[in-house]
Amino acid sequence: MSESRANKSRAGGLTRAGHLAARGLMSCNLILGVVSCSGSARIQQELSPVDAWVGMVRAAHAQADDALARGRSGDAQATLQAALEQPIPHGVDTHDRRAVAQDLLFRMAEISLDRGASEQALYEASRGLEYGRVDDVFTLNLLLASGHAQRMLDQPAAAAASLASALQIERRLSARARRDVP
What we know:
The chain has helices at residues 3-10, 16-37, 49-69, 73-85, 94-115, 118-129, 137-152, 156-180. By secondary structure, the protein is mainly α.
């Protein structure tokens, strides 16, 4: 993550999209936690295939964080790509599969953007969007990454379309959140 983005996030100066991205990471962690804890009233001696997969994804994110902290963005991306390529066990529903894949690809796109590799970022964001477009933070993040990459590639019309789509999702999510507040 670039120095300025990292400092902005740590300082609490998140934009509305940044808050949504943070909410998305929390959602992903919640999904991963629910998947890993569901049906587990007792402590298991062996991990189920779903629990092992969730643990692998979490470990990949942690390893990517460590690599980024050491300035090794290539290692971070390789770790995330390896996690993406792991077989997904039976028992993980379609929504969770999509969310985890899109979250991994968004992180890869964000790392590419921070490195100035806008073509790679656009490729990764596009791969993520191939999993489907839903009104959620995972799709929103990928559209934002696409828009930023397209802007960096001097594709203003495509960037405007991606960012407009992201804005529409953000508005629908905000409206939904306002309705859900008691």
